[in-house]
Specification:
- The strands form 2 sheets. A 4-stranded mixed beta sheet has the order 4-3-5-6. Strands 1-2 form a two-stranded antiparallel sheet.
- With about 260 residues, the chain is of the alpha+beta class.
- The protein is globular.
- Helix 2 packs across helix 4 and helix 2 runs parallel beside helix 5.
- The longest helix has 23 residues.
Length: about 260
């Protein structure tokens, strides 16, 4: 039996597929509110990095070619979207079927995987559990622009806890990547899960309280803090929530209030 993050990744992928499965090729080329990405761009991006994780699970030799290609593009100042299009030329319904089929195959293939196994990556190596959490997080986060574009509301589940924990664990990173000093203590965090369960984390430097989905949306930069129902008290808590970034890579500017999920 695979560890729970594998199933959580698959369920997140299936939830996104459920709103995409009836769209025709033209509909899949619609632009979202995220940097002008089309739905196709979102699917291709998710598929590219799902493939990358699966290569990483096969070891350094299998992964090194893809990593060299990605790093080469970055060093030349090229957009990773260009690399993704070259590696994955499929489009429309063919791309959609390829993406979900591969996600299902990965979940099956990872049954029995040691969650503590160390995997090579573009940056520092990571555990298999962290790799699957990252894939779930990206699927959930990029799913936002699709749900927003289609005018649909996603039904959240407690598997979102993986993303919440990732957000909590990247408190220090969120400050470092934004060029800010890391506070000695973090805020107390009290969140209501989709099931109604209460999840608590953190320290005593202020307070963050509200829906778990709102917290996850802020740390993944899919919603501005002002567009959520989170209650934030204290300077440390507010500075973090206004600059949170739970994903790797260079500094990204959180969305402006009213720029996502409206219109």
């Amino acid at each position: 039996m695979s560890f729970e993050q594998v199933q959580d990744f698959l369920e997140e992928s299936e939830a996104l597929y459920a709103v995409l499965c009836d769209l025709n090729d033209e509909a899949l080329t619609q632009e979202t509110q995220f940097k002008g990405w089309t739905i196709e761009d979102v699917i291709r991006h998710l598929h590219f990095w799902n493939r990358a994780v699966d290569f990483a699970a096969q070891g350094e030799e299998a992964f090194s070619g893809l990593r060299n290609r990605v790093m080469g593009a970055i060093n030349k100042g090229q957009s990773l979207r260009v690399v993704e299009r070259k590696v994955i030329p499929e489009s429309g319904r063919v791309l959609r079927a390829t993406w979900i089929g591969f996600a299902r195959a990965v979940a099956k293939r990872w049954e029995g995987q040691n969650p503590k196994a160390r995997l090579p990556w573009v940056g520092p190596e990571m555990s298999a559990r962290s790799a699957m959490t990252a894939r779930q997080m990206e699927t959930w986060a990029h799913g936002f622009e699709v749900f927003d574009l289609l005018g649909k509301t996603r039904q959240e589940h407690d598997r979102i806890r993986n993303i919440v924990v990732l957000g909590v664990n990247t408190f220090g990173w969120s400050h470092k990547v934004q060029g800010l000093s890391v506070p000695e203590d973090m805020p107390a965090i009290r969140l209501e899960a989709p099931s109604g369960e209460i999840w608590e984390y953190g320290g005593s430097a202020g307070k963050i309280e509200g829906k778990a989905a709102d917290f996850a949306a802020v740390v993944t930069q899919t919603r501005a803090l002002a567009d959520t129902g989170l209650k934030v008290e204290g300077d440390v808590a507010r500075l973090w929530m206004e600059n949170a970034q739970c994903f790797a890579g260079p500094k990204e500017t959180p969305p402006a209030p009213g720029s996502r999920g409206v219109g």
